[in-house]
TrEMBL record:
It comes from marine sediment metagenome. This is HTH merR-type domain-containing protein. InterPro entries: MerR-type_HTH_dom, RNA_pol_sigma70_r4_t2, RNA_pol_sigma_r3/r4-like, WH-like_DNA-bd_sf. One of its GO terms (molecular function) is sigma factor activity. PROSITE patterns: HTH_MERR_2. Pfam families: Sigma70_r4_2. One of its GO terms (biological process) is DNA-templated transcription initiation.
Length: 277
């Protein structure tokens, strides 16, 4: 019943609760159980083992994340509780306040999980929070964005030897490119997200964007390269080394300078960089 009222009839959580004369939290709980029951019934009725299903773990994560965030937004105002996408459309500042004010790592993780489904509006808010100029808010937004990128997988394309990054990574890259902030903060965020990426296609996409900010990006990459204590440390974040190799002549010129140094560590780093090239 709750699935029909919410998805077919288009009622909000609040309206479903009013119709059934139960608390909104009960509606959320019933919604979660109903989804699980529906999936179980579909599995039992299916004779086709190859029928694609929503990954149970991801589905459960999103449900729990939305419930937690909704309760955080209005724990004392259950009559105002609606779908998070509706709240975001009507009052985007409430999502921004969550990023800014929360000190709970678990809540930031929940926001990362929900970015995938909420899409552009939430991504824009997270970017605005990162570039807000407030160090605390920026750190929270960084956690959310890095968590989001870590979830982004890749899509296999028929006829391609390699895949491509998932849609969410492209949405984030597009909004970042369009943001009016100058190149250096963009490059800093891109480098953070490259480190966080667990999928190669996603990391390559972000690297492509980083290389568009040639001067700022190369400076940050070389700072990271030069801080390495030993050559093997370079491979703790191989995408950084990959990006430097793609920069071409500027990287080669820096390697020559390191080779001419009397510092053995710098010479070893230069050798590792030359081997990578």
């Amino acid at each position: 019943l709750v699935l029909v009222l919410h998805y077919l009839e288009g009622l909000s959580y609040d309206e479903v609760a009013t119709f059934l004369d139960v608390p909104v939290g009960t509606v959320m709980s019933r919604m979660h159980r109903a989804r699980q029951d529906l999936k179980a019934r579909m599995t039992e009725m299916s004779d086709d083992e190859d029928r694609p299903m929503i990954p149970s773990e991801i589905f459960t994560q999103e449900v729990h994340a939305e419930i937690s965030v909704l309760l955080a937004i209005g724990p004392n105002k259950p009559t105002e509780t609606e779908r998070l996408s509706v709240i975001l459309r009507r009052s985007p500042e409430r999502f921004a306040q969550l990023i800014e004010q929360t000190d709970e790592e678990g809540m930031l993780d929940n926001l990362s999980i929900l970015l995938r489904r909420l899409g552009n509006p939430a991504i824009e808010i997270a970017l605005e929070s990162y570039f807000s100029g407030d160090s605390r808010t920026a750190a929270h937004a960084s956690t959310v964005l890095r968590g989001f990128i870590a979830q982004c997988g890749s899509i296999r394309v028929s006829g391609w030897q390699t895949g491509m990054a998932a849609r969410g990574a492209y949405l984030l890259a597009d909004k970042l490119i369009q943001h009016p902030v100058e190149a250096t903060p963009k490059a800093e965020l891109l480098l953070e997200m490259i480190d966080a990426a667990e999928d190669d296609c996603t990391a390559v996409l972000l690297t492509n964007v980083l290389l568009c900010y040639a001067e700022a990006g190369f400076r940050l990459l070389m700072e990271r390269f030069s801080r390495a204590g030993a050559p093997e440390d370079l491979y703790l974040s191989p995408h950084v080394l990959y990006a430097l190799c793609r920069s071409g002549t500027p990287f080669c010129e820096e390697l020559v300078k390191l080779f001419d140094s009397d510092d053995a560590r710098k010479q070893l780093l230069a050798l590792a960089g030359a081997e990578a090239m």
